[in-house]
Design a protein that fits this description.
single chain; alpha/beta; TIM Barrel; four-stranded parallel beta sheet; 15 helices; 16% strand; globular
């Protein structure tokens, strides 16, 4: 069985219509900033790739396997949530496996109306079958480019870039930073650190971040998900982060002074004020934040998510999926869920996309063109 898909691929069920103001959100142009390659596999692809390497899977039916991922991920713990990646990364250890996953990733983004996406993944986790770091990056880039070509052949358009990620609990930060910079003119647009957050601050990788700063290479850092304000501070100071991966726990630095029937009066701490004033984008992922317990301090339902508080206060909020497989979601679904919870309309959804466009790691002129395309797309509905 070949690792390359044999024919046309269908979009996942998560791209079913999600309606806001009478408009199917799927047709709206969108930007995806925080989307993990190893968290966006199709269940059927996992089954087929696992069969090629004689790897046992919990379920051999695609729908049942999708259910398994959803159950395992809905634990309320980031540590438990991350264990599901043992299976997805296991089938992403060859050139063809990586290329297939990357190609389908792009097709699924395009089917959901995404016009620009940054795809993050950790090459150091994909070396078990003999690939080098550079070979892994090149395989993913090949798949991404195949996906873009397929989308264009269908009459649509999408652009993607890699965010090369280092695992924060490992000691390869500088090596992975150098890898990212080597491929900066071949598809890699930025750097990230990910993995278990608590106990592994960005400062552990300060030498890597120093190198990236010297190379004028953009950085986003997972922070404010499974750890609090100190982690965010380290991401900004030690990591020179231009965006915060999740960053939801920045709301811990916002104090509600009083409220009445119409207004909530708050004060910002120095950290949250800095993030707001510098317009540092928050890569918020509503469903994932619920699953991992990132918003446990505020509640356990979407209405409890501090997303709306941050938005109303003027923070640069963006909407993301994090891991489409584990959360069984899409960007359209996340936007529709927020609209339902907080009463957002299409103007709000456009704001979120313009925020994301401004925060991409594209050159300024390309960001401006992307913003124009988004506004044009929203104007036509």
């Amino acid at each position: 069985m070949s690792a390359e898909p044999s024919g046309p691929t269908e979009p996942p069920s998560t791209t079913a219509p999600h309606v806001v103001d009478g408009v199917d959100v799927q047709i709206l142009p969108k930007v995806s900033l925080h989307d993990h390659l190893d968290g966006g596999l199709r269940p059927q692809t996992i089954i087929e790739l696992a069969d090629e390497i004689d790897l046992d899977v919990p379920e051999t039916d695609a729908d049942a396997l999708g259910d398994w991922f959803a159950r395992q991920s809905d634990s309320g713990s980031l540590v438990e949530y991350l264990k599901t990646f043992d299976l997805t990364t296991a089938v992403m250890q060859t050139r063809d496996g990586l290329a297939r996953v990357a190609r389908e990733f792009v097709l699924d983004l395009a089917a959901d109306g995404v016009v620009y996406g940054e795809v993050r993944w950790a090459p150091e986790q994909h070396l078990a079958r003999g690939l080098t770091l550079d070979q892994a990056v090149e395989a993913v880039q090949r798949g991404l480019e195949q996906g873009v070509d397929d989308v264009r052949a269908s009459g649509a358009n999408i652009r993607v870039g890699q965010l090369v990620t280092a695992m924060r609990h490992a000691d390869r930060g500088l090596e992975i930073a150098q890898l990212a910079v080597r491929h900066r003119d071949a598809g890699v647009v930025g750097f990230d650190i990910a993995g278990a957050e608590a106990g592994f601050p960005a400062s552990n990788h300060r030498i890597a971040f120093d190198y990236l700063a010297e190379q004028y290479f953009p950085v986003t850092v997972h922070a404010g998900e499974a750890d609090g304000l100190a982690s965010i501070q380290s991401a900004l100071i030690d990591g020179r982060a231009l965006r915060l991966g999740h960053g939801v726990r920045l709301a811990e630095d916002i104090t509600v002074e009083r409220q009445d029937d119409e207004n909530i009066y708050v004060s910002l701490g120095r950290l949250s004020q800095w993030v707001k004033d510098r317009e540092i984008a928050l890569e918020l992922s509503p469903s994932s934040n619920l699953q991992t317990g990132a918003i446990a301090a505020w509640g356990d339902d979407l209405i409890d998510h501090p997303f709306d508080l941050l938005y109303q206060l003027g923070f640069q909020v963006t909407v993301n999926t994090d891991n489409r497989l584990m959360s069984r979601t899409s960007l359209s679904r996340e936007l529709a869920l927020l609209a339902d919870a907080f009463g957002y309309d299409l103007d709000d959804l456009e704001t979120f996309q313009l925020n994301a466009a401004a925060a991409t790691f594209l050159p300024l002129e390309d960001r401006e063109d992307l913003a124009e395309a988004i506004s044009s797309g929203f104007d036509t509905v």
